[in-house]
Design goal:
There is one protein chain. This protein is of the alpha+beta class. The protein has 5 helices and 3 strands. It has helices at about 30-40, 40-50, 55-65, 70-80, 100-110, and strands at about 55, 85-90, 90-95. A 3-stranded antiparallel sheet has the order 1-3-2. It starts with about 25 loop residues before the first helix and ends with a helix.
Length: about 110
């Protein structure tokens, strides 16, 4: 095996201490999952619509001009992140915004500032 050519050097420098004690986020993995789910424009639009009132998949499809199966996939992602809740109202499955979970995510994000 050949020896590497050239000089081998190491540069060291002092690492200054942090000005304040770093406080870890309460639930980093939940926040990361929530932010990932909110990274989609359609899901953000769904949340905007749910701020007004509870809606069914068929209503979402009409408002967003997207096929119902695609809306269902977006709603499943929001359900897994616990940002929306669903309940049955007669024949329809209705979706509502989980305002508490959204407020917790917002508080975690503002803790970063």
């Amino acid at each position: 095996m050949k020896q590497p050519r050239g000089l081998r050097c190491t540069i060291t420098y002092p690492v200054p201490p942090l000005p304040v004690r770093v406080t870890p986020l309460r639930d980093r993995s939940t926040l990361a999952a929530t932010v990932a789910v909110l990274g989609d424009e359609t899901r953000l639009r769904i949340i905007e619509l749910l701020r007004a009132r509870d809606l069914s998949t068929r209503e979402f499809s009409g408002f967003l001009q997207i096929a119902a199966p695609l809306i269902s996939r977006h709603l499943q992602a929001l359900l897994r992140a616990q940002l929306v809740e669903r309940y049955r109202s007669g024949y329809f499955v209705m979706y509502r915004l989980n305002r508490k979970a959204l407020a917790e995510a917002a508080a975690s994000i503002s803790a970063l500032v």
